[in-house]
Design goal:
It holds the Pfam family Acetyltransf_3. The chain is an alpha+beta fold and 189 residues long. It has one domain: Gcn5-related N-acetyltransferase (GNAT) (Aminopeptidase), CATH 3.40.630.30. 35% of the residues lie in helices and 26% in strands. It contains seven helices and seven strands. It has a seven-stranded mixed β-sheet with strand order 1-2-3-4-5-7-6, sandwiched between helices. A hairpin with an 8-residue loop joins strand 3 and strand 4. The chain binds coenzyme A (COA). The site of coenzyme A has 20 residues, from strand 4, helix 4 and helix 5.
Length: 189
């Protein structure tokens, strides 16, 4: 398996939507909203920050050149002296679950994001029932965080009552997690 990541291109969008609509993925994820189509996704990718200053990026994950996953990123501006934030959401094709692909892809992506902005704070959330995603979140070094109650309520309504958990990650915790993930070197036996 040769896992690589690249900024999402227009040619990837249909495969991303196919993945997002896969019933096995949808069980753990929000259904794309009605207005969310490949065309609107393309527009969002090419767009400028919205009125709240939030900008969007997506990263595609490939195995030997075939798209097997993606990571969506919404960047907040970090106004009034606050640190910039990046809200991440990810999906992987079922054929690739349980092989450490998402942790590998996120390790590469977060290295790039923290290089770009060492003060960035990365957020991730998952349904309470999503043990696999929570495990990925733990492996990457995230710590539990509290969602603003209004955001939490919005999620609760959108998910028809399924509870959601939020986590945060800064550069230091990411680095420590990467050290823990590194295989012991040969001299250590
Ligand atoms: C969540 C997801 C991205 C995980 O990616 P992945 O590359 O498969 O992650 P990993 O290979 O590291 O596996 C995750 C962990 O889940 C564990 N796991 C598998 N089934 C599990 C279960 N039923 N209960 C608890 N843990 C489970 C695996 O054992 C692994 O942990 P380990 O390495 O400590 O053994 C992928 O499963 C996926 O896309 N799922 C569907 C969509 C989704 O959930 N998106 C995220 C929404 S927040």
């Amino acid at each position: 398996m040769a896992i690589t990541i690249k900024p999402t291109e227009i040619a990837d969008i249909d495969a991303i939507f196919a993945l997002r609509n896969d019933p096995d993925v949808l069980r753990h994820q929000y259904q794309p909203r009605k207005g969310e189509t490949p065309a609107s996704f393309e527009k969002k990718l090419a767009g400028q920050p919205n009125v709240l200053g939030i900008s969007f990026r997506c990263t595609s994950i490939f195995d030997d050149g075939v798209l097997v996953g993606h990571v969506m990123q919404h960047f907040g501006p970090g106004a009034e002296g606050r640190r910039r934030s990046c809200d991440c959401g990810w999906n992987l094709a079922k054929s690739h679950w349980g092989q450490g692909v998402m942790p590998r892809a996120l390790t590469q992506l977060f290295a790039q994001l923290f290089d770009e902005d060492p003060k960035l704070v990365v957020f991730a959330s998952c349904f309470e029932s999503n043990h696999r995603s929570r495990r990925v979140i733990e492996k990457l070094g995230f710590q539990p965080d509290r969602m603003h109650w209004m955001v939490w309520l919005t999620h609760l309504v959108r998910s028809h009552g399924r509870r959601i958990e939020q986590y945060r990650l800064d550069r230091l915790r990411y680095r420590r997690a990467v050290e823990r993930m590194a295989p012991p070197n040969e001299s250590q036996g």
